[in-house]
Write a structure and sequence with these properties.
Number of strands: 4
Number of helices: 5
Distance between the termini: 41 Å
Number of domains: 2
Mean pLDDT: 93
Strand order of the largest sheet: 1-4-3-2
Shape: globular
Order of helices and strands: EHEEEHHHH
Largest sheet: 4 strands, mixed
Bound molecules: zinc ion
Helix content: 25-40%
Radius of gyration: 17 Å
Length: about 170
């Protein structure tokens, strides 16, 4: 059972975990109750290889506000590398031209980038200056980390946050 802090987090997990064959296919989403627990279920058949796919997440009943993926605690199902990659993708999608006001769609992409970046920061151990590589568990997340470990320092993440906030303020 995967423990998600929110439906947004469960959805992002599914998005970042395509089938082993590499295909990304739409899965059907439903919410169910089982043994007093609220579960988010994603299921379907892979369009690439025909394999049955199913993810089950335990979801708290109290939704998190705004675009947040969860509270103070870092994710237990996604790691800092995955969140940073997703944040970058949101920032890329906003693709701001310097003198241009961001559109509503670009602002939304920036908000997504900021929300994902906030999740990265939660992985910095108390009193530490950076996220240790050992804290990143997925192969994908480690590839993101290895490509540029310097991005996982408190300083670099806070600089990145300022940059995104500045881009947002242009609107
Ligand atoms: Zn497949």
């Amino acid at each position: 059972m995967l423990i998600a802090r929110s439906i947004q987090e469960a959805g992002l997990y599914v998005e970042l975990h395509p089938c082993d064959c590499g295909a990304r296919s739409e899965l059907t989403f439903s919410m169910i109750e089982r043994d007093g627990e609220l579960l988010a279920v994603y299921e379907g058949t892979c369009a690439g290889c025909g394999q049955a796919r199913r993810f089950e997440f335990s979801i708290p009943r109290e939704p998190v506000p705004g675009r947040a993926y969860g509270g103070e605690q870092p994710s237990s199902i996604l790691d800092a590398g995955e969140f940073l990659w997703y944040s970058d993708r949101g920032a890329d999608r906003a693709a701001l031209a310097g003198d241009q006001r961001p559109s509503t769609r670009e602002l939304s992409a920036l908000d997504g980038a900021l929300a994902a970046l906030d999740e990265v920061v939660k992985f910095i151990p108390a009193g530490a200056d950076a996220i240790p590589r050992e804290a990143i568990h997925s192969e994908f997340g480690r590839a993101v980390y290895d490509a540029n470990p310097d991005r996982f320092t408190r300083e670099s993440l806070s600089y990145r946050r300022e940059l995104l906030l500045d881009a947002r303020a242009e609107g």
